[in-house]
Design brief:
This protein is of the alpha/beta class. Helix content is about 40%, strand content about 15%. Flavin-adenine dinucleotide binds next to α1, β4, β8 and α12.
Length: about 625
Amino acid sequence: MANFETVEVKTDLLILGGGFSACGVATEAAYWAKKNGLKVTLVDKAALDRSGAVAMGLSAINQYVGIKDGENTAEDYVRYVRQDLMGVSREDLVYNIARHVDSTVHLFEKWGLKIWTDEEGKYVHEGRWQLMINGESYKIIIAEAAKNAIADAGGEIYERIFIVEPLLDGNKCVGAVGFSTREEKIYVFKAKATVATMGGAVHVFRPRSVGEGFGRSWYPPFNTGSSAYFTIRAGAEMTCQEVRFIPVRFKDAYGPVGAWFLLFKSRAISAEGGEYMAVRKDELNNWAPYGLAKPIPANLRNYLGMLDVDAGLGPLYMETSEAIANIAQAYKDDPKAFKKKMKELEAEAWEDFLDMTISQAHLWAAQNVKPEEKHSEIAACEPYFIGSHSGASGAWVSGPEDMDTPYKWGYNNMTTVEGLFAAGDASGASSHKFSSGSHAEGRIAGKAAIKYIVEKGAEPNLDAAKVDAVKAKILAPLDRYKEFCKLTTAPEINPNYLLWRQFMDRLQKIMDEYAGGVTAAFKTSKSNLERAMELLAFLKEDSEKLAAADIYSLERCWENIQRMWQGEAHVRTMLFREETRWPGYYFRADTPKMDEQNWHCFANCRWNPANGEWEMSKKDIWNIPGV
Ligand SMILES: Cc1cc2nc3c(=O)[nH]c(=O)nc-3n(C[C@H](O)[C@H](O)[C@H](O)COP(=O)(O)OP(=O)(O)OC[C@H]3O[C@@H](n4cnc5c(N)ncnc54)[C@H](O)[C@@H]3O)c2cc1C
């Protein structure tokens, strides 16, 4: 086995990940840990200040309910999420987050985040639930509060440690194993409770950006399915693994469209000028009741655009110049005010990108796009797994203690594995939490995890032989490379192993072509999914032949194994759900209609660590009475 130093860390609460939900867990848990004399340890694969989906910053907080000002209620938010997810959401979880999220946003402001306000001092809304922010440093501000909380409670933060496997004691999670991405060190974390918050997954599917654009994607390339892998491998029940997210964004640099649609009230059109949301309105009847209610679900909006593309009416465009002109129209009689307004709108348009997707500003500059003069191309991105946004995949977690929900078996946000909690992208069926809701859910999970430790937390019981086996497995690609690399003149061509890039290309090709990726126009079928399963089985066999020349490649190997597991859970669940419920995210051509009678339910899956078998199950949907 590669000669890595083993570092053992003992803690009470282990937080895996350093993103928005992890910062929420840390801030809340540290407070309760300090009161109870417990230790909190956070482990991130990157540097906390700029890690996760908010690394580059954001231009809006997407979940703010506005309860104190009587703007909306938590029940309103439940109705909104139910509608957007075509009826499939865990209303107990959504409600729980919605009733706590405003206080999280107020904390953000207290910690220094600039939320836009109008002349009366009221928050400037982008849409009903969204607040505009100066968000370039959003992550740094929220990370600073988490760091301070952990330091105040005497806890520890480990950065640049890539977490791979859970440590189990029967059906109980007792820690995790990972390795340093900089030094030859393997880390064994032993904990009484663990919270998985390692984000969602990208590059499971072949991206649109290949060749010179490779690495660009809407979702950040450094979240690789670690949450899904960790919870699946621990034996946790998973939910909504079929509910991927496909955003429509500015093409090739994946710039955000929210400000254009919501703030600037822009239209999206085909190359022929037809506004697909108007031209194809009748199609929405086929997806009633959701297609006929407002707001129209994100997947259906995508779908209408995709129908235009299928009909050869692409490219699709965002009518930026028209939207800017419409707003400036109000100032047309005053040339000075008109000029000033145009400048202001232009600045807002660019700032939206500079706050969160700088490469889109580069691309506009490179292609001489002036948004006030010319429209700009938009397109549906490749599929992502992001349970905190408009997707829903994640672990099946226990509901709030004080609600009469049927989904309750333990502490709030605990998975079906004892001592293992999940939040943010890692917890499923509670979409539309976004940055603020993920932080709020983190706080909920953090508090519950400390309560679990206080009431039930026993010293972690670890089998040393099992820990050694996990360590050997993690480092095996390095050993394999060393053993065989000299047998061929070109190290990348070797009958004894394959390298991470070859493995990833194969995974992405399978997912893209058979599981409804971009080149398959987001369509799949039973036969295609079964073929995907056959090919994934070969890929899984070959994952044991991965080789790595160095630590960097070792990380890439494990990232792609994790992606493969996310891909497998996805394919299995799409196969299981014999209907099309989210056209615009994926379309099952052999079951092209929604089937409310048989499939208005959650589709759950579980990989059994004891025998390596997958179990699929349906779970009833519970609506909050009267909502
Ligand atoms: C492009 C994009 C735009 C968005 N726009 C908005 C917006 O405008 N407004 C809004 O409110 N929300 C927005 N969101 C949503 C918001 O970013 C997410 O909801 C939120 O970041 C989810 O929090 P999380 O903690 O689950 O994941 P993340 O914040 O992504 O954090 C994941 C963490 O896990 C770490 N990690 C990953 N793998 C490992 C591993 N193996 N070992 C250790 N650590 C690991 C990462 O380094 C990171 O620290 C956007 C998301 C995306 C992708």
